[in-house]
Each structure stands twice: as C-alpha cells, then as structure tokens.
Specification:
InterPro entries: NPHP3-like_N (IPR056884), P-loop_NTPase (IPR027417). The chain is mainly alpha-helical and 1024 residues long. Helix content is 64%, strand content 4%. It folds into 5 domains: 213 residues, no CATH class; 187 residues, P-loop containing nucleotide triphosphate hydrolases (Rossmann fold); 80 residues, no CATH class; 207 residues, no CATH class; 120 residues. Helix 25 packs across helix 29.
C-alpha cells in the first residue's frame, strides 16, 4: 500500500514539526513526495510527485491532469447528480456538494498562487483529478468518502479566507512562500489520501464504511496546514503594519477576543465528520424561497422565531453551509454566533461582538482600518475598566470594520442563534439587537439573520418569520420517510399503512423537529414485538420521548453515560473530546491516570449520539431542551448536582496534582505565556482544571452564604490528601482564571482559592503567599478597590517575612511594588494606607541596610521618604529622629560640611516642631551646633533653632533653651558687622528679640536689658 511521506521533516526551522509515525491505520512514507523547499519553485516539484501518484495508483494518465480544469470538474459533478440523482440530504448528495465547493476553492487558490510562482494552477489541476478519482469509486462507498470530503471542504474554507488577501502577488517573498506552502501541503495531503484509501475503498462491499481517525492518520498534516496559514496571516499583518506601533500585540488581542486555539482544527473536523454520519440533513424546503427573497430584497434584517425544538439551530447550520458552498459568484462570508445554553457565562452581547470581530479579522487579514479601532477599544479599556464602555467601543469597531471591508468585496451575512438565551433576559436581548442593527445599519452588502424563541424584543425595521407546524411538516415527513425505512416493522407495512403511520407521527410531532428526531430513532430500533407498545407510550410531549430515550434502565446499565451526562450538566464550559478523555481517565482512589482512555470520536455516536453531539471538537447536548430535561433528572436517575460538582472537582484536582509537579518560587509577575502554553499543550485538561476547580468547590456546597469555607471532616481529609501544594498551580490560576466565563468577576474565584488553601495548609504556607500576591494584583488590575489591593499585598509581605526572611528577594519585590503603588498617595492625616506605607518603608530600609550598608544612597533615599511621610501627616516628632539618621548617614558618606549635609540641615527648618514630653531633641541640637557661619543666618536654620529653643521651654528644659539662644546670639553677633548685608542684620534682630523675650520670662531682666542696649548702641547709626 502506498502512503504518505513525512513531508514536514525538512521544513524550515520555524515549522519544526513532523508527520505521525507510520502505522497500518494511516499513510506510510512514500519517497515520491518531495521534501519542502524554501523557494517558490516548490509547487512544480510537488506537482510532479502528485502526478506520479495519480498515474501509478489510478487509471488516469498525464493527459487527464493536463486537460482537467474547474469547468470540466464541475461538469463531472453535475453529471453525477444527473445520472445518480442522490436524495437531497443523503450522504452522496452531501459528498458531491462538498466536493464541488472544495474544487472551486482549490482551483481559484491555485490561480492566485500562479500569480506568485509557476505551477500553482497545475497543482490545483492535480488536486481536482485526485478528488475526481475518489468520486469515481461510486456512491456505494459514500460512507467511506464522506469523512474525506467533509475534511477537504473545511480546509476549503481556509483557502477561501486566504483568497481574500489582496495583492498577494505584491507581497514580500516570505509571504508568497507561505501561500505556496499551503497549496503544496494541501496537494500532498490529497495525494496521500488517494494513495492510502484507493485500495481500501476498492475493497469495500456495499454498506461497508471506513471511519476516518483524523488525529492518527492526517491530524498532524491538517494542523500543520492550519499553522502555516496562521504564519501567513502573522506575516501579512506585520507587513501591513510596517512601522506603525500599537501597545497591544496581535497575540494579546487574540487572547482578549477569546479566539479559539489554532491547534483545534482536527478536533473541529472530527466533530463535523461525526455529526454528518449520525444525523440526517435538514432539507429546509420551506425556507429556501424565503431566504432567496430576503437576499434579493432591500431588507437588512431577517428575524426567525419559533418554539423550542422547531429546528432553529439546525436551520442556522444549514444556512451557513448553504451560503458557503454555493457557486463562487454567490458565496457569502458568514459571521456566526450562538448563545449556547451550556456556556451561560459566554452568552452575552460582549462575547458575541468579540466573536464577530474575530471572524471578521480572519477574513480581512492586513486590513488596518479594521484592526485599529479594535485595539484602541482595548487601550481605552485599560484606563476605564468598564465592560459596558468596552462593549460599546467594540460595536463601533465592528461597524468601522464592516464599512472598511465592504468596498466591492464579498457580501457578509451575520447569523445569530439562540438570542433568547442571552444573559439578562428580554432587556439584554433588546439592547443586543439594537447594538447589532446599529453596527450594520446602511452598510452595503451586510445582512443579518437571527434565530430565537420569543418575539417580545422584536422591533420595527426587520422582516419577521414565525416558524409554524405547516412550514416544517414537509421536512419532518422527509425525515420520517428516511429513518423509518431502516425499521423492521415499517418495512412490513403496506404503502397506505406507512402513509397513515407517518401522518400520525406528524400530528404528534406538532411541529417539533426534536420530537420527530427522538421518536424516529426509538421506532427505528424497535422490534416487531415492541413496536406498537412503544408507539402507544409516546405522547406529543417532548418529555415522553426523552424519558423513553434516557430510561432508568439505560443509565443503570451504562454508568459511564450517567457520569458523562452529570459532568456535562455542571461543567463551566463544553469540554473537548481530549479533555473529557483525560478527565475520565483520572482514578481518584489510586491518585493516578488509567492507561485506557475513551476515544470519544467513536464512543459518542455509538453510545449516546442521540443525546450528545461533537461540535467544533467539544461535547454538547443535542439541544437545550435535552439539557433542561436532564437537569430535572438530577437527584433522580442522575446524581445530584452537588455530587457531580464534588466528583468533578476531585478529578480536576487529582489531574492537576499529577501533572503540575515542578515548583517555582513565589513571584509578582505573571507566568510567561510560553510556560503556560507549554503546560496547556502537554496536558489538554489542565487549563480547564485550573480554571474551574474552585467553581466546582463552591457549587459542591463547601462554601456557606457568608463565603466561608465549610468542610466536614471526611471532605477535608479527602480534599487535603489530593490538593496540589505547588506554587506553580497557584501561578497557573493567575494566568488562566480570568478566562473562565462562568464567573464575570475572577477576583471572587481568586479569593475563594486563597481561602481554600488557607483552610487546607494553614496560614503560613508558600502557596497561600502566592494567592495573596495574586489577589493584590487582581484587585489592582481591575481597579475595584485600592485599599483591598494594598491590604492583600501587605499581608503577602508579612507572610513572606514569616516564611523566608525580612531581607528575602520576594519581600523586597513585594515591598517595592507596594511603594510604587502608593508613591503618589499624599494625605495630611494618618490613614490605613499611610500606616501600611510606614511599615513597608521600614522594611525597605532594613533590606537596603543589610544589602548596601547603613550609609548607602538607597538607605538615605528611603529614610527621606519615611521622614516625608511623617511630615505630610504632621507627625514631626517622628520625622525628627529619621532626619537625624539621614544626617548621620550623609555626614558619614559625604562629609560634615558637604552640600548634602547642609541640605538636610535646611530641611529641618521646615519642620513645625511640636514635641511631646520626654522626646529626645538631640537630633536638632547636634545639627545646630554643627552649622557654620554661613548656614546659621539662613532663614530656615534660624527658624529651626528658635523652634528647638521654644520646644525646650515648653518641656521645662530652660537650661537647654538658654544654651540654644546663647549659641545663636554669639554666632550672629560675630558675623554681623557694619559691612554686613541686610539679611545678616535682619537675622540678628530676629535672634535678639527671641533671646530677650526668653530672658525676661526667666526674670533675667538685667541680662535682657544689657543685650538690648548693646544692640541699640551698635546699630543706632545703621540705616535700615
């Protein structure tokens, strides 16, 4: 058997990925496939290898490849439709539709590549021949071909998006190389499928099928094509931006817009394949005419409403596929959003506009006019932190982007489903519809179609269609005719009895597609003996068919199904197939992972496809009605919701403990994206586990109404025995918890995580320290409360001192951060923040004394900051000894007569000295007696000395006051001569008056008189 070469082995270093190992299940190595090259000539080399594969494995020759073009390919498919007349909605009809769309896109993309390098169009011809060969195997093997063409069709949407890039041929060489690589990789993939499946398909008998395992066989190649596309987009954005700079990078913007991970492409394809196999396509006969009438009219909004179960969600998917896979001239760009019942936290208008912008950016790579308003919206959000303002800005950005992208380009259709499920009810729905319509109003080429249940929020200016029983009867009848053909009982009935039976079922369905779906499946699988009894037990109520579908006997005999349904009911978001597989592999009693994991891509359609679907790689309930019914069964046929939360929490904690073993020191900075992404790539369930364990803890009844953690003894023992004790776990929480849509305020979860750690490990634990740091940063980031952020950070500092040491790195880092947060805090009274800052300044002084010495510039700086703090709050008695320390440090470091020392002396002149009894005043005393003759006459120094003397008098230390006055009088008397300037003369007068006043108070009148007379005599001829 021919198979696939590891085509990515020699790819340039930036690609750095390989094909999967050779197995009997997937393509093997084939030396005919060329290694990737770095030049534009790769297309011709790949064309030669694909042509060789075609001539060796099929009946086609080189001339077939040469003469095949898009027209001949489309004619071939049209002939298949005419000669085989496939039933609309059947597998073969779907295959031909997907094949036509893929062929169109690959050929047109080949022409675009041809403008960059020779060989692009030839390569597209070879791909068309490969598809034509697969189609020639015949509709008898439709089940084997369907997954192939669904895969290729989804990849065609990728090509269509790349085709929207304008002036690709004028782009730099690296960009054109990536475009060529996409076509070459897709051609290699198609050639390998032909080589691998040609023999298998040829050997299949009627009714046999091959279920493709995308992950094992071609998953890596699909993912690599997806990654190359992303590399192409990144390069185009970089080229378009040029030297323009935004504070927000493209990768950061994608995170803020909650873009889906790129490596989930094969997961999405897996869900598409599964869904196409396990459900019949809705024909939507009645809606086709309405749709075309709407698209040809001048009406911009079409609102479709209908009761629960009337097929609105299926119709929305049909609409997307219908418009996308039409002929190229009529293709619409579809922007889709669903207000999903199983992700209530994301069922908001903000989530919707984010999703629409993400899809629009994907279709308009390099369009700066679209990118700029989105980035500006988030730059503004960094300042105001208002979700309402952010949403309004993003709606405006959407309108700007639509206007910028709709200048002669492909028309855009915005499809929203489940609008009635928006968080906030009718009022939120009205606001959402108004915002959506305002953003698209009068933008040429943009239409809106909405699907919902109620009509109360509908307004004028749109066309409204109500789904009635009569509208969908034809579709439901077609479904019953198709599914009951497989029933043993139905096959034995006469044509009239069949018609009557279907009519009876139609009446009971009462316009509900969901009822028809379950009733049809139940009756299809019934035996001759049980058929009539089953039919009689089913009423027109949807609950009756659901009760028969999810019977107690079924759940009792299938524990795994009950577990999965319970977990899906309480999960904070739909889990992917890989996440669920790893979740169920967790063995809580053994604290280990079981080796045998469930392959959900096969398990779901085989065991519970009637209840669960795989969509975009994740498990979802088939309908919100199914979810609502199962919620009613919690505590009955299913375990209680609290038990489900507890069990899910235990599994996520064990999983985290097993996979987050390496530890790190506590830190203030976020865990790097590269580290977090490495964890996420290595352990698929880890992001969900880290984001959601605390939600499940709360919902498991372990938190009371006041927010306190309440665990019974056995619960505490169970949780404590498996709770991860690494700082890395707490750091991952900080990196990922804000992405959890189940709670609008992640601070609530951070706080609960902190309380849980404190309850389990005690107050003095390294992970509690990291949680405190995270809480401080989270409060600061959201601007919810300045005092809260500082309170958590001061607690972190105190705990770090207790855990490590006062001079440790983490204490220093926290202290510096605290001081930076409070550096602009100025107040005239002692507050809680001032007290915190006082404490942290003392810690910083201790740290720098230990690191640089008592007289270092760093110590002097923080001593000055502490003194200034006391000055600001008028606690001068505390500032004075700190100033003394500053003076002593400066004197030792710079010298007693240095400018720095004089500066600190001057600073003391500004102190309003009001000392309490018993306070040591030697600080100022020493400074005064160290003044030189030039300093003593300075205004601030005289004021300082006089204040000191007055303080001595207040305390009753008259001898010390006398000492100060005498020193001042002697110094000023020596300095003041007949030639002295006015400042010296004024200073002498000031000192004389103060000294005389003091002497008179001390009843030393004679001395006071002598000084006064002496002053008068020496200055009687002085002209002031």
């Amino acid at each position: 058997m021919l198979a696939l070469r590891k085509i990515f082995e020699a790819r340039r270093k930036r690609r750095n990925s390989t094909s999967p190992p050779v197995t009997s299940e997937g393509p093997k190595e084939d030396s005919n496939f060329p290694a990737a090259t770095d030049d534009l000539g790769r297309a011709e080399q790949v064309f030669k290898s694909i042509k060789d594969i075609i001539t060796r494995t099929t009946h086609y020759n080189e001339q077939t490849v040469e003469y095949t073009d898009l027209l001949s390919y489309l004619n071939f498919i049209a002939a298949k439709h005419i000669t085989q007349m496939p039933s609309r909605g059947g597998h073969w009809y779907l295959i031909l539709t997907k094949a036509r769309f893929f062929g169109q896109q690959v050929y047109l993309f080949g022409q675009q590549v041809e403008s960059c390098t020779a060989g692009g169009e030839n390569l597209a011809r070879a791909v068309l021949v490969c598809c034509q060969f697969l189609l020639e195997t015949g509709y008898a093997h439709a089940a084997a071909l369907l997954p192939i063409f669904i895969t290729l069709s989804e990849l065609a949407t990728l090509l269509y998006a790349v085709r929207q890039v304008r002036d690709l041929e004028k782009m730099p060489i690296a960009i054109k190389e990536n475009a060529v690589d996409i076509l070459c990789d897709l051609a290699n993939l198609t050639g390998s499928i032909v080589a691998h499946y040609s023999q298998k398909i040829a050997s299949l008998g009627a009714g046999q099928s091959v279920v493709i395992d995308l992950h094992q066989s071609i998953g890596n190649q699909i993912t690599n094509i997806w990654r190359v596309k992303q590399e192409l987009y990144d390069q185009i954005w970089s080229h378009s931006l040029g030297k323009r700079y935004f504070s927000l990078s493209l990768s950061d913007l994608q995170k803020k817009l909650d873009s889906a991970p790129l490596d989930s492409m094969y997961r999405a394809l897996s869900g598409e394949v599964t869904n196409s196999f396990e459900h019949s396509e809705v024909h939507c006969y009645w809606f086709s005419e309405i749709l075309y009438s709407f698209l040809e009219s001048n009406v911009q909004v079409l609102s479709i409403t209908g009761p629960a179960g009337s097929g609105k969600s299926v119709m929305a998917k049909w609409l997307r596929d219908k418009l996308l896979t039409a002929s190229d001239e009529k293709i619409y760009i579809t922007l889709n959003f669903e207000f999903a019942a199983d992700t209530p936290g994301a069922a908001t208008a903000l989530s919707c506009v984010k999703s629409l912008l993400t899809q629009l950016l994907e279709c308009n790579v390099g369009n700066i006019a679209l990118l700029e308003p989105v980035i500006i919206a988030y730059e503004d959000y960094a300042g105001h932190r208002s979700s309402e303002k952010l949403e309004a800005s993003l709606w405006n950005a959407l309108r700007t982007g639509l206007v910028a992208t709709q200048q002669g380009s492909t028309p855009i259709l915005i499809i929203t489903d489940g609008d009635d499920g928006i968080v906030g009810g009718d009022r939120a729905a009205i606001a959402f519809h108004n915002a959506l319509r305002t953003s698209t109003s009068n933008v040429p080429g943009v239409r809106i179609i909405t699907f919902s249940r109620p009509e109360s929020y509908l307004s004028n200016g749109c066309r409204h269609i109500r789904i009635t029983d009569r509208d969908i009867q034809r579709d439901i009848r077609a479904y019953f005719d198709q599914i009951l053909l497989k029933s043993e009982y139905f096959d034995k009935l006469s044509p009239k009895m069949r018609h009557d039976l279907v009519g009876e079922l139609l009446e009971n369905a009462n316009g509900s597609f969901l009822w028809a779906f379950y009733a049809g499946r139940l009756l299809q699988s019934a035996s001759l003996e049980s058929y009539q009894k089953l039919k009689d037990s089913i009423t027109s109520d949807i609950s009756s068919v659901l009760q028969a579908t999810v019977s107690e006997n079924r759940l009792r005999s299938d524990d795994m199904l009950g577990t999965i349904l319970s977990y899906m009911l309480v999960a904070t978001r739909p889990l992917t197939v890989e996440e669920f597989s790893q979740l169920l592999a967790v063995n809580v009693p053994k604290r280990s992972m079981d080796k045998d994991a469930i392959d959900f891509a096969k398990w779901v359609p085989g065991r519970c496809g009637d209840l669960i679907i795989i969509w975009r790689g994740s498990l979802h309930f088939r309908s919100s009605i199914v979810r609502s019914y199962l919620l009613q069964q919690a505590g009955k046929t299913l375990c209680t919701l609290q038990d489900a939360h507890f069990k899910l929490m235990m599994r996520t904690l064990v999983y985290t403990r097993l996979h987050v073993r390496t530890d790190r020191d506590p830190t203030l900075v976020n865990l790097g994206d590269s580290i977090a992404n490495e964890f996420a790539a290595s352990y698929e369930l880890l992001p969900y586990a880290v984001q959601s364990w605390v939600v499940h803890f709360r919902e498991a009844g372990l938190v009371d109404s006041t927010g306190a953690v309440v665990m019974r003894t056995h619960e505490f023992m169970d949780i404590a025995s498996i709770f991860p004790d690494t700082v890395t776990f707490a750091q991952l929480e900080r990196a990922w918890l804000h992405r959890n849509h189940s709670v609008p305020d992640p601070i609530v979860l951070h706080h609960l995580a902190y309380k849980v750690r404190e309850a389990i490990f005690g107050r003095v634990h390294i992970t509690v320290l990291q949680s405190l740091i995270t809480l401080g940063s989270a409060h600061r980031h959201t601007n919810t409360s300045n005092i809260d952020s500082l309170s958590y950070l001061i607690q972190a500092i105190r705990l770090a001192i207790a855990l490590v040491s006062r001079t440790s790195v983490i204490v220093a880092d926290c202290a510096r951060l605290f001081l930076s947060w409070t550096e602009n805090t100025r107040t005239t009274e002692r507050t809680e923040i001032v007290t915190y800052r006082e404490e942290v300044l003392g810690i910083m002084i201790t740290i720098y004394r230990a690191k640089y010495g008592f007289h270092s510039d760093e110590v002097i700086h923080w001593l000055k900051e502490l003194a200034q703090l006391y000055m600001d709050i008028r606690e001068e008695e505390r500032a004075t000894p700190i100033r003394r320390e500053v003076y002593e440090a400066i004197k030792t470091r710079h010298g007693e007569k240095s400018e720095e020392a004089r500066e600190i002396c001057r600073a003391f002149g500004a102190i309003d000295v009001v000392f309490t009894v018993g306070h040591d005043l030697c600080s100022l005393d020493v400074l005064i007696y160290n003044m030189d003759e030039n300093e003593v006459v300075e205004k601030m120094n005289i004021t300082m000395a006089l204040q000191l003397a007055q303080s001595y008098m207040t305390r009753g230390k008259f001898s010390l006051a006398d000492r100060v006055y005498l020193a001042l009088w002697r110094q000023i008397s020596v300095l003041c001569t007949d030639d002295s300037d006015i400042d010296v003369q004024t200073a002498k007068v000031q000192v004389m008056l103060a000294y005389v006043t003091f002497l008179r108070r001390m009843n030393r009148v004679r001395e006071a008189l002598d000084i006064s007379v002496g002053f008068w005599v020496s200055n009687e001829d002085f002209d002031m």
